[in-house]
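Model it.
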Amino acid sequence: MEGFKAKEYKIFELFDKQWAIVTAGSMAHYNSCTVSWGSLGNIWGHAGHSCPIVTVYVHPARYTSEFLRDSDIFTVSFYPESCRKALSYIGSHSGRDGDKIAAAGLTPVTMGQGVTFREANLTFLCKKLYQHQFSRDDLAPEIQAYYAAAPQVYPDFQGGWQPHIVFVGEIMDVRDDR
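Modeled.
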């Protein structure tokens, strides 16, 4: 973790500009999806110690959300621009329908008890600390309108919409090949 603290990360650009892949499960059975909503931060530190975290937001319609809900460990990985096409493929195909990782040309590798990909140039291995779906009623009116404008993208499978699930993970290890 020492390298994590010493290195500068452009946290406001990582998710928005680079996108990321969140992966949960074991090497024998895992799933991944592309995410562009996320953050790095600090929460629940105790006795003067920080607790560095990664937060990602995954819609419940995504197959990966099932793996995230059932797993105690997940990874969040970032990639060089040369992998943009692979991230786009992973973000537009479901693991329910086949091996999208192989089709995207990525190589799965273990990282601790998690799964990441050889092509990643930055991966955070996370221990899940929290998960919860946002409450529709607690969202600001403009955010409710955002979801309501695209029920096909954020389906509740009853003709309406539902918000994302937030997953907060403590950063246990970092692999930085940048």
